[in-house]
Specification:
The structure holds 3 protein chains of 3 kinds. Chain A is mainly alpha-helical. The longest helix of chain A is centred in the C-terminal third of the chain and has 27 residues, at 204-230. Helix content of chain A is 74%, strand content 3%. By secondary structure, chain B is α/β, with parallel strands linked by helices. Helices cover 35% and strands 24% of the residues of chain B. Chain B has 9 helices and 10 strands. Chain B has helices at residues 45-53, 75-80, 98-110, 124-136, 152-165, 182-193, 208-214, 232-237, 239-246; strands spanning 7-16, 19-29, 34-38, 60-65, 68-69, 83-86, 170-174, 200-204, 217-222, 225-230. Chain B has a 6-stranded mixed beta sheet with strand order 6-7-8-3-9-10, with helices on both faces. The longest helix of chain B is centred in the middle third of the chain and has 14 residues, at 152-165. Residues 248-253 of chain B have low confidence and may be disordered. Chain C is an all-alpha fold. Chain C has a single domain (3-295), classed as ABC transporter involved in vitamin B12 uptake, BtuC. Chain C has a two-stranded antiparallel ribbon. The mean pLDDT of chain C is 86. Classes of the chains: A mainly alpha, B alpha/beta, C mainly alpha.
Chain lengths: 315, 253, 305
């Protein structure tokens, strides 16, 4: 078993052990933070798939987070509590939305693609904002949560944590298989040079669309989880600045790396927690950190770790 | 009695504003032959290549390939039908290794693109085919190098090799000798020569010496039209060709 | 719906349009000439508004307020450009998006630290009331001033871009940057000037709109996106496109909100209509942008070669 696998197992074990450890230390409160990190790690990893591996820069990815959240919230507010139903509805709803948006957006390239993803997410933002029946611009608070088979209620902190951990672990595992698969190599190739890929006979549009939809659905799942954690949805989840935040997580963690989403989500959320305890102007400092990373440490945390532990390994 | 040509271009046109870049081109390439296309700067070679490859839509005319009309097909569909191309400016996949570059080219024609579960480097057949192609290009021992570590000549060789990896019927080589020194040119010329019979080659080149040594057929493109086409020695003696290149009727090619 | 009502809405649309034009003109120049996506452009607008509000509060004079805002914002813009933004020209679009997004965070909190979360500003007394422009139609004098300023700035920009040497360089740079550099133009100084001009325009828009909209931290984020819509529709790098695009967006958004609301009120129950109207209007602006990007990405007035 090589070093990377060992590290992954160690991380998994540490994550599994976290709730009882926190409980023993009387620091249960931090379980909420850890859960939030897991949820945003799922979202950021999905964006990393789209951006880091697929090379598609989207300023509208948060729209899928929001759609997944709203789909779940609407079902919950209508009394449908089955987690399996939520899962199915989120996959279908976000899948269809990302299929349509992707099929149209992927006809454009470069800066036009960035702009059109922005346009679609703003459209969805205003749409959701206007639906008065489910909170409108004030958002919707929920009193119940999803129920999983076996009588598990996501209202319980520990249950939610392990559920989110399972989703993240599965997502990372699938991403890992993807990167080393035939499809993964095709996607990496077309990220490098789309024209060449097409000239070789690779199905560029179809490949990009598959990645776009997969990333969208995964982000939607993160949104569904976030509803269960916060008990609240608001149209702000779809605002372009949320997409910006996800991008920040990806860049902090490391674009195009397996762990980049998790590292970035952890880094940003922990920074927010620590800094907001010190000053109300914590975004000011986060802004400088981000600027520093963009200008001087392009490969983010994962890049730094890699150069520390495995400087001779080719990426 | 002539065989049906593998690639047949008839009356191809393309205008840009007031300029006819391609002004009624007729061209035939037979299976297995090396057919060179030469012409002075500004003759319209780049435009014609883009039209044949499918990157540029033609205004009128037809392109037939392997018995079917492909005039409106995308580059990706043409590649799948066996019409491959290499690029004048090297286009390689920078984040993949040399072997991976070749493997993805082989993979393109063997389908299963969306298989996302199994490890691709465990696919022995794929790896063997890719490695064999690398050996043919003289890059066998550099299979795990990064692209940026290769020399210009090696990159150009890989560039051509990737177009061949999918076992196309015809390969369009766009100035493969561009920017090469004497040694590298000789190696590339030998490689192209070795393709005869196995692939049809439509070779676009500036290096007239290499062309006349290599080609079975030479066509001369001037102002968007083919003014001469035939065996190298015949074309060499054609007065119109000399005129086009040098403005006089001397035999200088 | 009376004709006067429609006219009033049309004037509102023009007013929004001209303000969007001020923002979009700077944004399109920076994008066109320097190929840089600047997400912090809205922050310059916010800074302009805050500085104007602060100066007016300090001196009581609106003229000093606006003039000071323009000067200080332009100066700040130039400072920003020469220190940080300059390093981004050579970088890819993703890096530019992220770095300028970071600037939004820094500038939002920076403004909060200096001025607080908001700073109210009202129009000068002389122009506070409405005036009767045609019999039966009362329209805010301030809004009329905005339209007038918009027209003047548009004419000045036109003269600058078409008739001056700097303008010629800007146009050349927008259509072919490499050629410009190859011809020995001091590109660095040109870029700084372009950026400073953009910042000044933002300040004009910020200080004029301040009495109408709330001067608060974060006010730049929403108008920034509208500005992007404008330049996509108009054509990146084209001032003419920015003007036409801004008028289009301003009118569609403004008239769409109220007119759609009126129309829907006749068809739907009131609480649906009051929400659906603005939503549809906003959505239609982005729909227009999406259609443009697919059908004619180079915009109405393409500039790039």
């Amino acid at each position: 078993m090589n070093a990377a696998r060992l590290a992954a197992f160690a991380a998994l074990l540490a994550a599994l052990a976290l709730p009882p450890v926190l409980q023993a230390a009387g620091a249960d409160f931090y379980l909420g933070t850890a859960s939030r990190i897991l949820v945003y790690a799922v979202a950021a990893t999905s964006l990393n798939l789209l951006l880091g591996y697929g090379g598609m820069i989207s300023l509208g990815h948060a729209a899928f987070f929001g759609l997944g959240a709203y789909a779940t919230a609407i079902l919950l507010s209508e009394g449908v509590q089955s987690g399996l139903v939520h899962l199915l509805v989120v996959i279908v709803a976000v899948g269809v939305a990302s299929l349509v948006i992707g099929a149209i957006s992927l006809r454009t390239r470069g800066v036009y693609f960035i702009m059109i993803t922005l346009a679609f997410s703003q459209m969805l933002f205003y749409l959701v904002n206007s639906v008065k029946g489910y909170g409108g611009d004030e958002g919707l608070t929920l009193r119940v949560r999803s129920l999983l088979p076996g009588g598990l209620d996501l209202r319980d902190g520990n249950t939610f944590y392990y559920c989110a951990l399972a989703v993240l672990a599965l997502e990372l595992f699938l991403l890992h298989r993807f990167v080393h698969s035939r499809f993964g190599r095709v996607v990496r190739a077309l990220r490098d040079d789309e024209v060449r890929a097409e000239a070789l006979g690779l199905p560029v549009f179809a490949s990009k669309l598959v990645v776009f939809v997969a990333a969208g659905i995964l982000c939607g799942l993160a949104g569904a989880l976030s509803v269960n954690l916060q008990g609240y949805v608001s149209p702000n989840l779809l605002h372009w600045t949320q997409s910006g935040t996800l991008l920040v997580m990806v860049i902090l963690g490391g674009v195009g790396t397996l762990w980049g989403g998790l590292l970035g989500a952890a880094a940003l959320l922990l920074m927010q927690e620590l800094l907001s305890a010190q000053t109300e102007y914590f975004e000011f400092w986060i802004g400088w950190v981000l600027l520093g990373v963009v200008l001087f440490a392009r490969h983010g945390l994962a890049g730094m770790l890699r150069s520390l532990f495995a400087p001779k390994v080719r990426s | 009695m002539s065989e049906r040509a593998l690639l047949e271009i008839r009356a191809l046109h393309k205008r840009f504003g007031g300029v006819a870049a391609t002004d009624g081109v007729d061209l035939k390439v037979a299976a297995g032959e090396i057919h060179a296309l030469i012409g002075p700067n500004g003759a319209g070679k780049t435009t014609l290549v883009a039209q044949v490859a499918g990157q540029l839509a033609s205004d009128s005319g037809v392109v037939h390939f392997d018995g079917a009309e492909i005039t409106h097909l995308s580059p990706h569909k043409r590649a799948l039908r066996g019409l491959a191309r290499s690029f004048q400016i090297t286009r390689l996949f920078a984040s993949l290794s040399v072997l991976e570059n070749m493997a993805v080219s082989v993979q393109a024609s063997s389908g299963h693109t969306f298989s996302f579960w199994q490890r691709v480097d465990a696919d022995q057949a794929l790896v063997e085919r890719a490695q064999a192609m690398l050996e043919r290009l003289g890059l066998g021992d550099k299979h795990d190098w990064r692209i940026e570590q290769l020399s210009h000549g090696e990159q150009r060789a890989l560039e051509v090799g990737m177009a061949l990896a999918g076992k196309p019927k015809l390969v369009l080589l766009d100035e493969p000798l561009a920017g090469m020194g004497a040694q590298e040119s000789a190696e590339m010329t030998a490689l192209i020569g070795s393709l005869r019979g196995e692939f049809a080659v439509l070779l676009i080149e500036h290096d007239v010496d290499a062309v006349f040594r290599l080609a079975d057929t030479v066509s001369v493109l001037v102002n968007g039209r083919i003014i001469a086409s035939g065996k190298p020695e015949d074309v060499r003696r054609d007065p119109g060709v000399a005129m086009a290149y040098l403005g006089s009727e001397q035999e200088v090619l | 719906m009376s004709g006067l009502f429609v006219l009033e809405q049309a004037l509102n649309g023009l007013q929004l349009g001209f303000m969007l034009f001020l923002l979009a003109a700077g944004l399109t120049l920076v994008f066109g000439v320097m190929d840089m996506i600047n997400m912090a452009h809205g922050s310059l607008y916010m800074i302009g508004a805050f500085v104007a509000a602060w100066l007016v509060g300090l001196t009581g004079s609106f003229i000093i307020g606006v003039a000071g805002a323009i000067a200080l914002t332009a100066l700040f813009g130039i400072l920003l450009e020469t220190s940080i933004l300059r390093t981004l020209y050579a970088r890819d679009h993703l890096s530019q998006v992220l770095a300028t997004f970071a600037l939004i965070l820094i500038l939002n909190d920076g403004v909060k630290m200096i001025f607080g979360n908001d700073l109210p500003l009202s129009a000068p007394q002389a122009l506070e009331g409405p005036i009767e422009i045609i019999p039966g139609l009362m329209y805010s004098a301030w809004r009329l001033l905005i339209i007038a300023v918009g027209v003047v700035v548009a004419v000045l920009l036109y003269l600058l871009v078409q008739k001056t040497r700097m303008g010629a360089l800007v146009r050349a740079g927008a259509s072919n940057r490499e050629m410009c550099t190859a011809m020995g133009v001091d590109v660095g100084r040109l870029f700084t000037l372009v950026f400073g001009l953009g910042a000044a325009l933002c300040a004009v828009a910020g200080s004029l709109l301040a009495p109408l909209l709330a001067v608060q931290v974060g006010m730049g984020e929403n108008i920034l996106i509208l500005a992007f819509v404008v330049i996509v529709i108009g054509g990146i790098g084209s001032i003419r496109g920015a003007l036409v695009g801004a008028m289009l967006v301003g009118i569609v958004d403004t008239m769409g909100r109220t007119l759609l609301q009126q129309l829907l009120r006749e068809a739907l129950p009131p609480q649906w209509a009051s929400a659906a109207g603005p939503a549809l209007a906003s959505m239609s602006v982005y729909l227009l942008m999406a259609v443009m990007l697919v059908a004619r990405p180079q915009g109405l007035f393409p500039v790039r070669t």
